[in-house]
Design brief:
The two termini are about 25 Å apart. Helix content is about 40%, strand content about 15%. The protein has five domains: about 100 residues, Rossmann fold (3-Layer(aba) Sandwich); about 160 residues, no CATH class; about 70 residues, no CATH class; about 240 residues, Alkaline Phosphatase, subunit A (3-Layer(aba) Sandwich); about 70 residues, no CATH class. The protein is built from 28 helices and 22 strands. It has a seven-stranded mixed beta sheet, sandwiched between helices. A four-stranded parallel beta sheet has the order 2-3-1-4, with helices on both faces. By secondary structure, it is an alpha/beta fold. The relative contact order is 0.10.
């Protein structure tokens, strides 16, 4: 039998009708693979979300072409709770053929609410399972267990010991796998029937990756104690040597229930549960190195660090700073070399990989790596960078266009963010915005993912109560402020703001208009830009913080957009490359502006989200195009033209440059991207710039910043707090 996508795509035959109208209440057409299949067949797709915006795109991009006699296949997608197409404008209904797709037709024997809660990427496994096992009509609980087993490889009834549960949670949270809450609830319900997990904080560690990694971090020192017997300073690699039953995860042989020499740390725990975990069980152990390499767990000091560092727990032991960093860097290099995503990978794999790449970038910018001591590592990094750049560019060329129309509930691109924010403020009882909800969007202009990691580390040092729920999204191409940042505040692709695409002056109006369309008033929305500094006279007060504080004092304020452009200003004055950027960002962060800003927002009751409009890379000059005044934008990594002939002329001088098509852009906005890690400046010049297609420029952080009552042992997590990444 055909896969579920084939059942949909077979309805799209080119040139059958100029216009196809689709009722798609479950967002099936907006799934990544379906979108790609539709585009491969020559169709273009426009979701019908905003009447005015739709009308502009329809009239300017399609009606005008039809009037000229050109042939295009257009799909208009209506997403509503019903399959009634009558909500579409009359002229469309008269002109188009009509189709309808829904999950109930694809999965008739499964509970609709359960299936509807799944990421559309999970439907492949569910459809295959349905075909293979042919279940009869299943109720809610039976459907939940069917999905858990066949989609997520979780059989709750087979989890009999701690290592079983840890294996399941490690696989889930390390991958950033998103599992709907209704499935987690069923999973916990079944586990609670097993007395072994009675004292485990299941409600915290199963759905929340951050809590899970904090749980592991708190138990890691105890496990190290169990490996090192202080009486004879011996170190044992086998759990049986120190009285630990590896299969059960329980301690034996002492009155206190723990091996001799293991320190009791229960009073320090912020998450309840067992004291000693079976980290050395083979199903658990395989994840441990990567957790430390990628910063999800932090190494800890130990009295017997030198001896322990010679065993399999080496990455989790603090020895000397230089040795720890070298060991971590070599481990990351080994891991990354083996796991570069393929050209066929889903977008979530690249977003997950980007964080690992950013960790490597942070380590590679340290002084010891840049010295002769790190020559061997520098060569490996350069070779690896070439591979990553080539693979990522090929992936972007093939798949980038499919990202634009993905659902905003799990944001993938910057223009998805406002709709995602609006969803987070929705009442659980209705489609109206909660009257008490408040949200702040911090747009840190030009902050690359590796620079976010530097900023995060300093923020954690300055305020130990901060917790970071990390994700990533794609910026727009070209990766410049007037395109990408404006899309993030408008909540729309750049094609919808052609008049302001070369400036950011319209951002406040676009941001306000979006929220007015969601039901807020203008008095409930604010926008402030040009932020990033404390008072030059008194670093403890004043400066930009006064302006923010005054803005937040508005009694009716619900939503605020804040543009912090300090990093962008640092970047454009940078002459010392990536290492210089890290040092400057670290110095700026230690001045305390971001800490004070986040603290002020939390104190005023705001949810706080941080993102960036683009990243940056170190680039070398390949020469300046001699185009005079004909370029609409003369950037360092990109030139933009309104005439394709002019762009083609410059392309002849720079044959490796990329003529980027106007995907999601106005049709007369034609970028020419500098090749590789180069820039359109004189050949001897090196700079830190942006505008092109590299992993560092195109993948940017999306982080929810929370304040905890007390800091967990691990405060960093890439997880499904914002929908997660499909993988």
């Amino acid at each position: 039998m055909d896969r579920w996508r084939d059942l949909i795509l077979r309805e799209f035959t080119p040139q059958v009708a100029r216009l196809t109208l689709v009722a798609d209440p479950d967002g099936l057409l907006l799934e990544e693979g379906v979108l790609e299949g539709i585009r491969e067949r020559g169709f273009e797709l426009i979701p019908f979300e905003d009447h005015v915006a739709f009308r502009y795109a329809y009239e300017s991009k399609f009606r005008s072409r039809w009037d000229r006699g050109e042939e295009t296949d257009l799909v208009v997608v209506l997403r509503s709770s019903s399959s009634d197409l009558d909500a579409l404008p009359y002229d469309l209904l008269q002109a188009g053929r009509k189709l309808s797709f829904n999950l109930g037709d694809l999965f008739p024997n499964l509970s609709y609410p359960v299936v509807a809660a799944l990421d559309r990427a999970d439907l492949d496994a569910l459809f295959d399972a349905q075909t293979k096992h042919a279940p009869g009509q299943l109720g809610d609980n039976a459907t939940k267990e069917f999905v858990l087993r066949h989609v997520f490889e979780i059989a709750p009834e087979l989890i009999k010991q701690p290592s079983d549960l840890l294996r399941v949670l490690l696989r889930r949270h390390y991958r950033g796998q998103r599992i709907p809450a209704i499935l987690d609830e069923r999973f916990i319900q079944v586990l609670r029937q097993n007395g072994l997990f009675e004292d485990w904080p299941l409600e915290a560690i199963i759905p929340d990756a951050q809590a899970f990694f904090a749980f592991l971090q708190e138990r890691w020192p105890v496990f190290l104690d169990s490996l090192a017997k202080p009486k004879d300073d011996a170190v044992y690699d086998d759990a049986a040597d120190y009285g630990f039953d590896q299969s059960a995860g329980q301690q034996i042989g002492t009155a206190e229930g723990r091996p001799e020499g293991v320190r009791a740390r229960d009073g320090e725990y912020q998450l309840p549960g067992p004291t000693l975990l079976p980290f050395d069980h083979h199903d658990v152990r395989i994840y441990i190195d990567n957790l430390f390499l990628e910063g999800l767990l932090q190494p800890v000091p130990h009295e017997q660090s030198q001896a322990l560092a010679k065993t399999w727990v080496a990455y989790g032991i603090k020895v000397s700073p230089v040795e720890n960093r070298r060991r971590r860097m070599e481990g990351l290099l080994d891991s990354i070399e083996k796991t570069i995503p393929t050209v066929e990978a889903r977008h979530g794999e690249w977003l997950h990989f980007a964080y690992r790449w950013a960790q490597l970038k942070v380590l590679s910018a340290e002084d010891w790596v840049m010295s002769e001591e790190g020559n061997d590592l520098q060569a490996r990094i350069e070779h690896l960078m070439t591979q990553v750049d080539s693979r990522f560019l090929e992936w972007v060329v093939q798949h980038y266009a499919n990202l634009i129309n993905l659902p905003a509930t799990n944001p993938v691109m910057l223009h998805h963010l406002p709709r995602f924010f609006a969803h987070s403020l929705l009442s659980t009882q209705s489609s109206s915005l909660r009257p008490s909800g408040k949200l702040a969007f911090l747009m840190v202009d030009g902050l690359a993912l590796d620079q976010w990691i530097v900023l995060r580390e300093v923020l954690g040092e300055l305020d130990s109560k901060l917790r970071f729920r990390e994700n990533a999204v794609f910026a727009w191409i070209p990766t410049i402020t007037s395109v990408s940042r404006q899309a993030a505040f408008a909540g729309k692709p750049p094609i919808y703001f052609p008049a302001s695409i070369h400036t950011t002056d319209k951002e406040p109006g676009l941001w306000t208009q979006f929220w007015v369309d969601q039901g807020l008033t203008q008095h409930e929305v604010a926008y402030v830009k040009g932020l990033g500094d404390l008072s030059p006279c008194d670093a403890q007060a004043g400066g930009d913080m006064d302006e923010v504080s005054e803005c937040l004092s508005r009694p009716r304020l619900r939503v605020v957009g804040l543009v912090i452009d300090k990093v962008d200003r640092i970047m454009h004055g940078m002459e010392l490359g990536a290492a210089g950027m890290h040092n400057q960002v670290r110095q700026w962060a230690r001045q305390g502006f971001m800490r004070d800003l986040v603290g002020l927002l939390h104190d005023r009751g705001f949810q706080v989200y941080l993102a960036s409009d683009h990243g940056n890379i170190e680039a070398r000059g390949v020469g300046r195009p001699a185009e005079g005044a004909v370029a609409d934008l003369r950037g360092e990594r990109v030139r933009v033209y309104s005439d394709p002939r002019l762009r083609a002329q410059i392309k002849e001088r720079f044959p490796d440059a990329l003529e980027w098509p106007p995907i999601g852009l106005p049709e007369d906005y034609l970028p020419l991207l500098a090749p590789g890690r180069s820039a359109f400046v004189r050949e001897s010049e090196r700079l830190v710039g942006h505008g092109g297609i590299s992993l560092e420029e195109l993948v940017v952080p999306l982080v929810q910043i929370e304040r905890a009552s007390a800091r967990p042992a691990s405060s960093v997590s890439r997880q499904d707090a914002m929908g997660g990444n499909d993988s």
